[in-house]
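Now read the record:
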Amino acid sequence: MAELVRVVRPGGVVVASVMSLWGTWRARLPGATDLEAEHGADVGDQVLRTGDLRHVPGMEHVCRMFTWSEIVDLVAGTGAALIDGSASNWASLHNLELLTEMEADPSRWQQFLDREAAACAAEGARDGGTHILFAAERGA
């Protein structure tokens, strides 16, 4: 984050997306419980404590997941100003059949999208989607 803020011009904006620790855990709960059954609860605890998937033996998708409060601290540590943030797919993650049905009705679909956008932007929901989107502005 510090490097992104450093390379953007003064007054410039950094827009980023990171994987959400709690949203990913919620979305992948069946796989997470399978992982713990195979490798032990210690592995799951280490991932949830650190957000680091390198604790999973043989994990091919290595990344670091974050919480909203970590993003707030990360941006503050660079001297940039956090503009705003949002979860992604807070309500739309599952229920494909219902989403397909709603999408067939344009007014119902727009209503759902408006509600999804509002939910994703709510500060209390920012940890609940699979990703956290945010924007930060570099000072002058």
